[in-house]
Amino acid sequence: MIFAEKVNARVNIVSSNFSHNYALYGGVFFSQLSGFISCERCILRNNFALYGGVLFSQNEGQAVFKSCLLTNNAAMRASLIYSINSQSNIIIDGGSITQNKMWAQKDTFDLLLFKNKTRSYQLLARNFSLPFIKGLEDNLKEIKAIAAASSLTATGSNGNLGSNFQI
Question: N or C: which end of the chain has fewer CB within 10 A?
C-alpha cells in the first residue's frame, strides 16, 4: 500500500499495475494531511479494503487518477474511493471504471464478524493472508459499525467479492 501524508508528500505513479492488494483503509492508496497521489495510465484491479477499495482519503488528502483502469475492486464501504473530513478534490480524468463492488451482504458481515471463527478463517484464507485476517478480527467494532450503517435486510448472496474474490 502507498501512503502519502502531509503537504510535501507527493507520490507520482505512471504505467503501473496494482492487483490483489488489501488493507483495512485504502486497498492501494492512503492519503491524508494534504498528501498528494498522482496515478496515470495505471491498472488497479481486484483490490480490497474495509473502507475504499482503491483509495482512503482523509483530512485534505488529495489524489488524481488519469487514464486509469479501475476494475473489480471491492470494499465494505466505497468500492473505489472513501473520502472523509476533507474538502480536497479527488479527480478521475478519463480511463475506465467497471465492475467495482460494495461487499455488504448479510452473509459477508456474518463471515467478517467471525460468528463461526473456524469457518471465517478457512474462507477468508482463500484470498487474504493470516495477519490481515487477524487484523479484521481485531477490528470487529469497526465491522459491526459498518454492518449497522448498512441497514441490512436481505439475506445476502454467496459472499462473492467478484470474479477474483470468491468466498
Answer: N
Per-residue pLDDT of 68-106, as tens digits, reads 999 999 998 899 999 999 888 899 999 999 999 887 667
Hey, is 121 helix, strand or coil? helix
Q: How many CB atoms are closer than 10 A to CB 107?
A: 15
| CA 148 vs CA 11, 59, 69, 97, 126: distances in Å | 35, 24, 32, 28, 26
Q: How many CA atoms lie within 13 A of 140 on its CB side?
A: 10
Alpha helices in the chain (DSSP H): 106-112, 117-124, 130-138, 140-149
What is each CA distance from 108 to 16, 56, 64, 88, 144, in whole angstroms? 31, 21, 31, 32, 12
The whole-model pTM stands at 0.80
Per-residue confidence (pLDDT) for residue 162, from 0 to 100: 40
Alpha-helix residue ranges (DSSP H) falling in 35-116: 106-112
Return the C-alpha cell found at 145: 459499525
Give residue limits of the domains in the chain: 1-101, 104-156
User: Among the residues of 46-126, which ranges form H helices?
Assistant: 106-112, 117-124
